[in-house]
């Protein structure tokens, strides 16, 4: 029986959750969740100068917004430094690593000389096979003994088999002269100790895999399944950068994209399941597999993102969508809805959500339900409330006082009134929109009246008729 799948996301807390990192986290989350496995989170905070609590908080907030829940406690790589050093000492004791007393100046001089002579600058330490009795009383690093002949094959589920000649691998430093572990060692030890079975990460780490495999093999540990995914490019085909728009996951929340739409779009960014574009979380978890990831970089396209998000808004449960609108307002630092507005918004969503691609667009369409009397008209709407129109509204209002407040009845009454005036309902629509919403472009007049209810609708018409 195969062991359960364990994936991990391991960001460095030196900034926000980059959208590329968010996609990496999503792929790991989908792969684990779809197989009943575990998705773990490790903060790679060994760079103490650049790691900040604020960056860690931003990463966690970005993941929380995207709904990427992790299993177990968050692992701090820095706090495991003692364990990393212990492994380096173990390799040293077993002859798989050695003490290197070469100074940085000596290494630099070697590389400059090799470069000048056109030789390989790969440093070969003279201390690799030195007898212990020859060791000076001086600072040293611990280096792993890289294989000198043959080749290393990275069996990658996305990139295929990648072969590297072992004479291209250096005796990598494991422990610095101050006793602190290097990143390469820390990653391997943490992944092993966390039981990670599948390492799904950006293909900029592909070359690291060969060096990390040296540690796995020297320790006799099982090498995880590698899956190095291509980077994300902008629409111009160049590596995604600030000029392509927002980069942090939270920025997309502040811009008003729904989390479900963002998950769907990011899942499709470099991965496919047939021709399916729109899918639910459950479908994504069921379908996602490493074989569906493409080798070439994916292109980030805001128009496609908006299209997918519009479909998710349309398909969303009204109560959940209302909550997400409120979370958006909070994230964007905008005024919160009061209890009455929150209730009105949820009631109105059925007639709004089919045509909005972002949450700000949705809230703008909901203006009629969120505003209160007296309703202020914008410039276009005000033009529809001239003296004649106000008189028509004053004449119309009594016809609505005692009718059933349902769509069919309201349509009959308003169309009948228009016919009696020898006009079409379209002529009434402009003044009605202005009176009910203060806007020239709104949802259907009948939908607005149903959402607002009899008393509020009549009160707004009476205000406009004065």
UniProtKB/TrEMBL annotation:
It comes from the Bacteria. It is found in: Cytoplasm. A motif ('HIGH' region) lies at residues 11-21. GO terms for molecular function: glutamate-tRNA ligase activity. ATP binds at residue 242. Its EC number is 6.1.1.17. Its main location: cytoplasm. The keyword Oxidoreductase does not apply. The keyword Lipid metabolism does not apply. It is an enzyme of class 6 (ligase). Keywords: Aminoacyl-tRNA synthetase, ATP-binding, Cytoplasm, Ligase, Nucleotide-binding, Protein biosynthesis. It catalyses: tRNA(Glu) + L-glutamate + ATP = L-glutamyl-tRNA(Glu) + AMP + diphosphate. PROSITE patterns: AA_TRNA_LIGASE_I (PS00178). Residues 329-464 form the Aminoacyl-tRNA synthetase class I anticodon-binding domain. Signal peptide: none annotated. A motif ('KMSKS' region) lies at residues 239-243. Residues 5-306 form the Glutamyl/glutaminyl-tRNA synthetase class Ib catalytic domain. Catalyzes the attachment of glutamate to tRNA(Glu) in a two-step reaction: glutamate is first activated by ATP to form Glu-AMP and then transferred to the acceptor end of tRNA(Glu). NCBIfam families: gltX_bact. Belongs to the class-I aminoacyl-tRNA synthetase family. Glutamate--tRNA ligase type 1 subfamily. Monomer. This is Glutamate--tRNA ligase. It comes from Sulfitobacter aestuarii. The gene is gltX.
